[in-house]
Amino acid sequence: MNILEMMRNSTAGAVLPEEYKQFSVQEMEERVMEIKARLGKRLFIPGHHYQKDEVIKFADATGDSLKLAQISAENKDAEFIAFCGVHFMAETADILTTESQKVFLPDMRAGCSMADMADINQTEKCWSHLQETFGDTILPLTYVNSTAAIKAFVGKNGGATVTSSNAKRMLQWAFTQKERILFLPDQHLGRNTAITLGIPLDKMAVWDPINNDLQFEGRVEDVKIILWKGHCSVHENFTPANIEHLRKSKPDMNIIVHPECPYETVVLADYAGSTAYIIDMIEKAPAGSKWAIGTEMNLVQRIIAQHPDKEIISLNPHLCACLTMNRIDLPHLTWSLEMIEKGENTQIIKVPEEIAKDAVLALNRMLERA
């Protein structure tokens, strides 16, 4: 289900009441703290790295999407999980938590453009075409940044989920299972990971879900990786031109980027890795070192504030923060927590059981190899 369908079908499509737009920051912060105190361990607030500081300050845990879903599942005291992230992240939390736990998304408009670039109907059409072309030689892998329906499809067809941290290891495993891999939905993470395994670009093809065709050069029988034509709208805007400009203006600066960035950008950077990798690299870097970071702006600004002993900038200073992630702000968090306390099941995320059981297969195949 994509974000538009979710908004139409959900009982939580209500718009933020006007009164919350009039509250002062102090009043909202006090309300949030009071609710957290009253609900105690019954309430758990996970906050993704890309969230605004006004939300992160109230998070009980911060991290990437899978880590937060796992922490939520481990927290058996939590009846209510107010997931400050985007829709697919809350879905994963719901899949991994128990029936007695409820997962809420403070703003149901908080989606992910990358996840929505691969819906289940498109994926099934693609799979049918690929089976006709390549036979039973393909294993599907999906980035965790995908809908529950896509995770379920992958699980049902013997595949697994991957994260930006373990994509290389999971791709290696996948090639022990099948001759070819379909990688959803981020072509850049798939391409950059395949390159680290020594797979050349001319053995990669791209599936275009809009035109329903396979794009490749050379012989089709040589294709080893089929990349879904999807991308992160934030990371795709870190370009080779950004790096070339920086090499001239600040040649002593280290450049580190996320592997959701295009291959042409990653190959020019000094380092590339997951969000956790980027955070760890900066933390371990010596005082006085200089860094340009190619990832989401809220996180970059937070890293800058946490490391005043280093010179840190965004690789693309003109890039804005993730717009859909930023839909969750202090007013929406305040409203959501008040609705939770009142017992109103608005903004609740519930993955249908038949989808959840297959999605768990994909997640578990990955977790077994962690």
The main pleated sheet reads as:
6 strands, mixed
Output the CATH homologous superfamily of the largest domain: NadA-like
CATH overall fold name of the largest domain = Rossmann fold
Task: Tally the beta strands.
Answer: 16
- Measured between the Cα atoms of the first and last residue, the distance is 28 Å
What's the tally of helices?
16
> Which residue ranges are poorly predicted, with pLDDT under 50 across at least 5 consecutive positions?
1-13
Q: Provide the CATH top-level class of the largest domain.
A: Alpha Beta
pLDDT averaged over residues: 93
From the helix content, strand content and strand pairing, which structural class follows? Answer: alpha/beta
The CATH architecture term of the largest domain is 3-Layer(aba) Sandwich
Coarse morphology: globular
Strand order of the largest sheet: 7-6-8-11-9-10
Content of β-strand: 15-25%
Q: Share of helix among residues?
A: 40-55%
Count of domain modules: 3
- Based on CA atoms alone, the radius of gyration comes out at 21 Å
Give the assembly state of these chains.
single chain
What does this structure look like?
With 370 residues, the chain is an alpha/beta fold. It has three domains: 3-111 and 324-350, Rossmann fold (3-Layer(aba) Sandwich); 115-232, NadA-like (Rossmann fold, 3-Layer(aba) Sandwich); 235-314, NadA-like (Rossmann fold, 3-Layer(aba) Sandwich), CATH 3.40.50.10800. It is 43% helix and 15% strand. The protein has 16 helices and 16 strands. It has a six-stranded mixed sheet, sandwiched between helices. The protein has a four-stranded mixed sheet with strand order 1-4-5-16. α8 (148-156) crosses α16 (353-367).
